[in-house]
Design goal:
The chain has 402 residues and is of the alpha/beta class. It folds into two domains: 216 residues, 3-Layer(aba) Sandwich (Rossmann fold), CATH 3.40.50; 175 residues, Rossmann fold, CATH 3.40.50.2000. The chain is built from 14 helices and 14 strands. The strands form two sheets. Strands 3-4-2-1-5-6-7-8 form an eight-stranded mixed sheet, sandwiched between helices. Helix 1 crosses helix 14. The longest helix has 26 residues. The two termini are 14 Å apart.
Length: 402
């Protein structure tokens, strides 16, 4: 690729696991997302192009501001001291001042970098408006919506996140998303918005992981929270076992709280699923997550609200036949009857019916699995996403003439 001279800046949450041993970190309470797609894209971009990448990230786990450089990759990690734990008016003033200082630091760093283009990854980061009004082209990469994720949560934090998201939509002209429902929401705030269709890349291991012995019939991976529909899946399993009593399920991922984990454990017992529903828990090595999913016949994703779930994309990349709910961005990933089966959310009966249909039809399982893998190679393969993203950045920044 002829990408000489292209300088890109990202504002994002970069997984601190990839900075361990490289900068000062306190990871004693760190809970990283297991699928660090932002790192996969950075690695592929460095491999596939000559672009110079500057990542600006913020975390309370960083005791002091730090910089890490390796080849064309530069990471600027900002400490986020916010006055957390201080109550009253004084605490509010401390947090406001901390945000102002952070915003100033980010703007100063961006001016020093002088990138050709800035990409903001996600609309939830309240520090990202520091990238605006610098005279530099800005892209907002958004697959999910705060107004969807927090639509059932009526607190001040949710309201602020939604308001910030809408403000970004109004101020930024170009957006990366392949989700029709996201485009519709952006157009409500910004009728002149321009969209560029890209999906998040998956971990390259998903395409190369060797076959493993099958251990269970069904698998789910992700954080175990009510919104993901894991209890619907348990109820569906109980229904499936009426005609296929040996059916098993593995739930891979941490519960969002000890209380909810206790609740799920009790539900397993109440539904008579002991010995058939396994809680694998949090896996520190993401390769282990992939191995556990690989050891299943089908991948089930029964979420009530979601965007472009990476665990679903990974299962497709592994060639698994999938059953998922037809909510939000999922139909943009899975074409019903071609890449998998889609069912309504909050409907264990329909979920069980789709599972039984696939468990009873090996030919359909194989066909959907092959199609899912082909779709994943076209949409989620890191090298392809990186090449398309770099070309987009060059076109919008005018860097082709450099």
């Amino acid at each position: 690729m002829e990408n000489k001279g292209l300088k890109i800046a990202w504002l994002c949450h970069y997984s601190l696991e990839h900075l361990r041993g490289k900068i000062a970190l306190d990871l004693s309470a760190y809970q990283a997302h297991p699928a660090t797609w932002i790192h996969e894209l950075a690695a592929a971009l460095e491999e596939q192009s000559d672009a110079e990448l500057h990542i600006l990230t913020v975390s309370p786990m960083i005791p002091v501001d730090a910089i890490f450089r390796s080849g064309r990759l530069n990471v600027y990690a900002f400490s986020m001291a916010s006055g957390k734990g201080v109550g009253g008016r004084w605490g509010k003033l401390l947090r406001l001042q901390a945000r102002r200082v952070l915003r100033m630091k980010i703007r100063t760093r961006l001016r020093r970098i002088a990138p050709d283009i800035i990409t903001i990854h996600g609309a939830e980061h309240t520090f990202t408006d520091a990238a605006l009004d610098l005279g530099i082209p800005v892209l907002l990469w958004v697959q999910g919506l705060m107004q969807v994720i927090y639509r059932d949560q009526a607190d001040r934090v949710a309201s602020n996140l939604i308001a910030h998201e809408k403000a970004l939509f109004r101020r930024i002209p170009h957006f990366i998303t392949a989700q029709p429902h996201v485009c519709d929401s952006i157009l409500q705030e910004n009728p002149a918005a321009v969209f560029h269709a890209l999906f998040y890349p998956v971990n390259p291991l998903t395409f190369t992981l060797p076959d493993v012995p099958l251990r269970w019939d069904l698998a789910f991976s992700g954080t175990l929270i009510e919104r993901k529909g894991v209890e619907d899946l348990m109820e569906a399993l109980a229904l499936v076992r009426r005609s296929r009593p040996e059916t098993t399920l593995c739930l891979v991922g941490p519960a969002d709280s000890a209380t909810y984990l206790d609740h799920l454990t009790a539900r397993i017992a109440d539904l008579g699923l002991s010995g058939h529903c396994f809680l694998a828990g949090r896996q520190d090595d993401h390769a282990r997550v992939l191995e556990l999913v690989k050891a299943s016949r089908l991948f089930i994703y029964p979420s009530h609200a979601d965007t472009a779930p990476l665990s679903l994309a990974e299962a497709m990349a592994m060639g698994k036949a999938v059953v998922a709910t037809e909510v939000d961005g999922i139909p943009a990933m899975v074409k019903d009857g071609q890449d998998g089966l889609l069912v309504p959310p909050r409907n264990p009966e329909r979920l069980a019916g789709a599972i039984l249909q696939l468990l009873g039809d090996d030919r359909l399982q194989d066909e959907l699995g092959r199609n899912a893998r082909n779709t994943a190679q076209e949409r989620f393969e890191a090298g392809r996403v990186a090449r398309d993203y770099a070309a987009l950045c060059r076109g919008l920044s005018g860097a082709n003439g450099k």
